[in-house]
Specification:
Elements lengths: L3 E2 L2 H21 L5 E7 L3 H17 L2 E7 L5 H12 L6 E4 L9 H7 L11 H9 L7 H12 L8 E5 L6 H10 L3 E5 L6 H5 L4 E4 L17 E4 L3 E2 L5 E2 L4 H4 L5 E2 L7 H19 L2
Parallel strand pairs: 1-11, 2-3, 2-4, 5-6, 5-7, 7-8, 8-11
Antiparallel strand pairs: 9-10
Helix pairs in contact: 1-10, 2-10, 6-7, 6-10
This protein binds guanine.
GO biological process, one term: tetrahydrofolate interconversion
Family: Belongs to the tetrahydrofolate dehydrogenase/cyclohydrolase family.
GO cellular component, one term: cytosol
Length: about 280
Amino acid sequence: MGAQVINGKLISDTIREEVKVEAAKLQQQGIVPGLAVVLVGEDPASKVYVGSKEKACQQLGFYSEVHRLGADTTEQQLLALIDKLNNQASINGILVQLPLPKHINEKAVIDAIRVDKDVDGFHPESVGNLVIGDDSLLPCTPAGVIELIKRSGTEISGKHAVIIGRSNIVGKPVAMLLLRENATVSICHSRTANLKEIASQADIVVAAIGKPNAIDRSYIKPGAVVIDVGINRLPDGKLVGDVHYEDCLETAGAITPVPGGVGPMTITMLMQNTLKAAKKAHG
Ligand code: GUN
């Protein structure tokens, strides 16, 4: 029996529809969720991402502002814009697209965003709230991973989840979210001595290491749920995950494809965060 393929596009579309319905209800009270996206410089991938975020706002009836700034923008100028957006009532969420040009201190910029508008969940106080378990805006990709697991019909509580990767934007927050869902969590990384032994005990595997096709079926317990956060481009142009999808398809109980798994969830969770921030802002 092959694995259940977890359709990220379909789940993402379903959540977007839910967000759209909620946004329409808010609109009846005169509230329109507003997202400001700030792009500094000309990074081609960032331009595409920012365009997708703008489109998602239009699709869901959100107000959006996209600030496209030149690569020579100073940190001072960027901080001044964030200060303005922090105090702008029509804006509920602020996202500064990363990476920033090298002359700008990324941490100083993230720290300047109001925590209640931090729809990326990157502010240290948002990270602290995530660890403590307070109700706060959750980082988008990790929140998307949890939604995919839940909406594929998997009970998380009591399961052994193994995260492969310890980045601040995926590995660590995913571990914290799974812990909140009462999983037993192991975090593995490049220095883990016996990765295969640990991963193959997992009921849930989340791979986020940025190495194409690195995880084959020898790492996977039969029936395990496999969530692949990796997006890697091979020399021939093909997009693949960190998990060798075809190799794991017969072993896993459920698995996300790349593309079409975690990828579509990130912007959807951003929209959900913006909706949540708008609701909170209006009590
Ligand atoms: N660049 C790539 N992914 C992201 C993201 O999720 N948020 C921000 N701000 N920048 C990114």
